[in-house]
Design goal:
Blueprint lengths: L8 H39 L3 E6 L4 E4 L1 H7 L3 H4 L10 H15 L4 E8 L5 E12 L5 E10 L1 H23 L3 E5 L5 E4 L1 H7 L8 H6 L10 H5 L4 E6 L6 E10 L5 E9 L1 H24 L1 E7 L4 E4 L1 H7 L5 E3 H6 L6 H12 L4 E5 L10 E11 L5 E12 L1
Antiparallel strand pairs: 1-2, 1-5, 3-4, 4-5, 6-7, 6-10, 8-9, 9-10, 11-12, 11-16, 12-13, 14-15, 15-16
Length: 395
């Protein structure tokens, strides 16, 4: 340390000047360093991927970066001096008031928030906010780092709407539906299926829960569905003896696995009706063979006749479908005009009772064919077709 008390006046003056120059250099160095630091900070703020918003203690804007301006559709200068509440609707303002109160109390926070852009569109963001204090530790405002999550919010909303539509379709579906993993574990059951089973069988093996089997069902199509195939089939369940129509569709999960989505309709009534119809057809075929009569129909759209096997035999043709003119050719030429007229009148609603001689009939032969029928209307109450029986008669 220098001993200033031993210095002369001139030496002391020179020392003072030297210290003054050193102090100026230090101050200049500090100012340059401060400006460089501020420049670096500003470049960081302006080039940040997040929006930066600085408010004073009353909520008025003192600084915004370019990113935030673009986010809300403003030039940064347009936002300076304006209150935070100018950039939101009334609903968001209530939340903003609560958050500003928390900032003034020194609370940091991260939360989702919806702003309103200059064009009037909603801008969803994540705000990371922190209070700002001066040298005396007094609250002077707040700083917010803002990330635009509008696209994410839209995707989330679209997902919610999609899930709501799916739930509505599942609830409206008149049958049973479930989702099964590749490991044959039930992942989802609709309420109707739960009621049928008497429990929620989610997590159980499908063959055990749905069909009370000890092993995989012989008709299982899980492997085909897992390979991307859409499979539709019918099965009679050993559980209740009823017939079901099953439509299976693959669901490709995010982890690469494939689940099976099954839509199931109880078709027992249809199956019973089909069996009864087949039985009646068989009986009708046997009766027509014994009594020598057959069935026929005439369609207005195609102006053609269709016959069952016995009907073709009675009419003397090997065809099961012929146009009107070929049908007329099966009759004696003298009977054809009356036959054609009878069909036209029957199509207009008149009784259908056509008697004619086969084309092969010989003079004096009393063999005749009689076609009795009824007009059937379509859904718009327009003539659709005639149908009836043909039988051989002797006059």
């Amino acid at each position: 340390m220098k001993q200033y008390e031993k210095m002369s006046r001139e030496e002391l003056l020179r020392e003072v000047h030297s210290l003054h120059r050193q102090n100026n250099v230090i101050q200049m160095t500090q100012q340059v360093a401060l400006r460089e630091s501020e420049d670096r900070y500003r470049r960081m703020i302006e080039t940040a991927n997040e929006g930066v918003w600085v408010l004073d203690a009353k909520g008025f804007t003192t600084f915004v970066n370019e990113k935030l301006g673009v986010m809300l559709g403003y030039h940064p200068e347009e936002m300076l001096g304006r209150h935070l509440f100018d950039f939101m609707d009334e609903e968001s303002r209530k939340l903003a008031e609560e958050k500003l109160t928390l900032r003034s109390r020194g609370v940091k926070d991260v939360f989702d928030f919806r702003f309103r852009s200059k064009e009037g569109r909603d801008v969803w963001t994540i705000l990371g906010t922190t209070p700002i204090y001066d040298h005396d530790n007094l609250y002077v405002g707040s700083l917010a780092m803002i990330t635009d999550i509008t696209d994410r919010k839209r995707a989330e909303e679209a997902l919610r709407e999609s899930e709501a539509r799916y739930r509505a379709m599942v609830q409206a579906f008149p049958g049973f539906t479930y989702i099964c993993s590749q490991q044959l574990r039930i992942e989802f059951l609709n309420d109707r299926f739960k009621e049928l089973l008497g429990r929620d069988a989610t997590g159980e093996e499908c063959f055990a829960a749905l069909h009370e089997r000890d092993s995989i069902c012989p008709w299982c199509v899980n492997d085909r569905v897992a390979a991307g195939e859409h499979v539709q089939w019918e099965v009679k369940s050993p559980r209740d003896g009823r017939w079901y129509q099953v439509s299976n569709t693959p669901i490709h999960n995010a982890d690469g696995s494939v689940s099976k989505h099954a839509l199931i309709l109880d078709i027992t009534s249809r199956k019973v009706a089909e069996e009864e119809l087949e039985r009646q057809r068989s009986m009708l075929g046997q009766a027509s063979a014994l009594l020598q009569f057959g069935t026929w129909s005439w369609e207005a759209a195609s102006d053609s006749f269709t016959f069952c096997r016995q009907g073709s035999k009675v009419l003397g043709t090997d065809k099961d479908s012929v146009p009107l003119q070929e049908w007329l050719d099966l009759a004696h030429p003298e009977d054809r005009p009356n036959m054609q007229q009878a069909v036209r009148e029957a199509a207009d609603g008149a009784p259908c009772d056509i008697v004619f001689r086969p084309v092969s009939v010989k003079k004096g032969d009393t063999h005749r064919l009689r076609m009795l029928g009824k007009l059937v209307m379509d859904a718009e109450n327009q003539p659709s077709y005639l149908c009836g029986i043909v039988v051989a008669v002797t006059q």
